[in-house]
Amino acid sequence: MFNRIDILLKSILKLKLNYQKMSTKIVRIGVCQLNSRGDKQENFQIGEQLINQAKKEQAKIVFFPEAFDYISESISETLEKAEPIDGPIINGYRQLAKQHQLWISLGGFHQRVIELFY
Prior knowledge:
Residues 27-118 form the CN hydrolase domain. The protein is mainly alpha-helical. Helices cover 50% and strands 8% of the residues.
């Protein structure tokens, strides 16, 4: 019985020490806000500027809101502009993440999934 308790206490202490080591590191994040419109390329350029600014501020992670890619006037336009996950917009953000060596969290993305259209 004492061996189990002893092992448990050692595990808890080890976790606490690891947590203390982690908690002393400060990680800067960038939280981006943009008013997406129907022009995907314009929205991407704004996103790129925000990422560049976040990198200058030494951010390691950048967060974008839902519908960061575009907001359309109608459902048909939304469906028409949707892209696959490996389309130009997501690939553009992938390249920016690699270029700046940071994580990018992209909010809701209008993903084209052909099989789901009714």
